[in-house]
Specification:
four-stranded mixed sheet, elongated, 6 helices, two-stranded parallel sheet, 33% helix, alpha/beta
Length: 170
């Protein structure tokens, strides 16, 4: 069946091969076993594939790894909808119904300097109910007609400002 990889050896060998090859892995089985098998394969949240685990009865779909940048949270929601299962997403911004800086970067196909520290700081501020200003540098926006999804970006929790002089206090 296209999209499914049969075991060519052990479960660990198959997962390792898939981890290095695909952008997303869906494992039907135990979360603990999956964690033990992928642990030595982990590199970085910006490089690791999405890993989603579904219990053998199809009751829970768990976003295990690379929830934001890798797309595991979105894949979890999709699969849970198809299976009529419970999506299990523990990412703090998602749990609190807020946007996340790393997801905003993905939506804009943007690069960030010091992504790890910037995302950690901004997302922590968002979930702590601190005000985080969001300024679009209109001089850097594409010309009308160019495709840039600014209007479709998830900015829940951010405070939009039209000037750097109007950033929120604090």
């Amino acid at each position: 069946v296209p999209g499914f990889v049969p075991f060519g050896g052990s479960f660990a060998q198959t997962v390792a091969q898939a981890f290095a090859t695909y952008s997303a892995l869906i494992v039907i089985g135990a979360t603990g076993l999956t964690v033990r098998v992928i642990a030595p394969l982990l590199k970085d949240k910006t490089q690791d594939p999405a890993v989603v685990v579904i219990d053998e009865r199809g009751q829970h779909v768990i976003s295990l790894l690379s929830g934001h940048v890798g797309g595991a949270n979105a894949l979890t929601r999709y699969l849970a909808g198809v299976l009529k299962a419970d999506p299990v997403i523990t990412t703090a911004t998602d749990v609190n119904a807020l946007a996340a800086l790393d997801m905003l970067a993905v939506q804009l196909d943007a690069d960030m300097l010091e992504m790890r520290s910037g995302v950690k700081q901004v997302n922590q501020m968002l979930v702590s109910a601190q005000k985080v200003g969001l300024f679009w540098d209109h001089g850097s926006l594409p010309e009308p007609g160019d495709c840039w999804p600014v209007a479709q970006c998830d900015t829940r929790g951010f405070v939009p400002v039209d000037s750097l002089d109007r950033l929120p206090d604090g």
